[in-house]
Each structure stands twice: as C-alpha cells, then as structure tokens.
Amino acid sequence: MDERQEGAGISLYHAFLLLDGSGSMTEPERNSGKAKHIAVAEMVQNLINELYDNPSIANTQLTIVCYDSSSVDDIRLSDYDVKSNMHYNQNNIDLWDPNRNHGGATPIGRALASGHKLAEQWISAAQGMEVRRAVIYLLSDGGNYPDTEPNGMSERQKIKDFNTQQEALREQGGFKGRIRTATLGYYQFPQGANSEEDNGRDLLKNLPDNPNAYFESATASDLADYIVRTITR
Hints:
The protein is of the alpha/beta class. It contains 5 helices and 7 strands. Strands 1, 2, 3, 4, 5, 6 and 7 form a 7-stranded mixed beta sheet that branches.
C-alpha cells in the first residue's frame, strides 16, 4: 500500500477502474486500428506495470470491474497489490479484456453504483489511524443505454453525501476517508460528429463532483497516463 502521512493519520489509496464491456468496444480505435477492447486490455497491463515501477504510486491498490447490461460485478482483481500478485507482467491481456463474457449495452448508472458500493465498503473498513482515499475511474465509449437504466446522477449525489458525512466526523476523530469520481471518455470522434458519443460526453462531464475530473482521448494509452497522474491527488 502507498502510505502517506496526513496529520496523525496514514493515507491509503485504492483505484476502482470500471471498464466498458459493451458491444461497441469491438469497434476499432481510430489511432491504432486495434479493437477498442483489446487496446483497453493492453492499457490495463501497462497501468499495472506502471503501478509496479513508479515509486510514487507503488503498491496502490487496484480493483477492476467490467460492465455491460448483463453484469456489472465481474471483478477481475480485488484489493490488487501489484508487488505480490502473480498476474504482474505476465502480459496475458485476456485477463483484462472488458469484453470477455460481456458485449451488451452500457448501463453507466449501474456501473457507477457498483463502483460506489465497493469504494464505500473499502473506506468503511479503515482501522486505527488509516485515512482511505478511493477514486472511481469510469470508462465509457458511448452514451448511457438502455435508457431505462439510471444515468448515474443519483449515484453521484450518494457519493457526495457519503463524503459530506465523513467530513462531519473529522472533528470527532471518526473520519475514515473519501471517494472521488473521475470519468474517462474513450471517444473516437470530435464533438458534434457522433450523437451517441456526444450524449456520453455530456453525461460523463457531469458525473464527477470536480468538473476537472473528466478526461477524454481516442487512445487507450492516454487514459492510463491520466490514471497514473491522478490516483493519489
């Protein structure tokens, strides 16, 4: 675990990476020509390598969830410590392929609810002087679908309420941590060129409490760079 002093406490970090496993992820990435789900699987392996090699974020925990309309609880790695996990640097990208056993629609609200549940459970389990920092990274290449699913805004409020409750406990010494949400738009077209991607942009920009916590790229490797830069911020 990455440990940093915050007052009298020790800050621990955990990234929850929610990966879009919808059918559109089989389409090609514009810059590389690779299928997007393959590019994302490679991105995850590169991210794992970086977590191992970068001393500023070494041992930060990572949980990966792949989601589509059939499942949002397919956790590939739970409480992932790259220094002790045998999957490190095996380069078997099938392990991280978001379309394995997926390929349906994109229920963004349900995915965020799953990530929120995992993050809140992890923070609530903090012991002693631990202060736990969870960040949920939600990746999508399109809009929320099916339309009957919640779009994630109610879950955004629940996360905000959880953080407010935690802040209220700070003076009493009961503060355990907070959750941040960042959204990753994996879009292949510029604004205005594709209506589905534009709908997704609008939603993903609104989901984080911090308006600057939205990042967009047509290249999966850029998304990994963003995660590395922001895990412990």
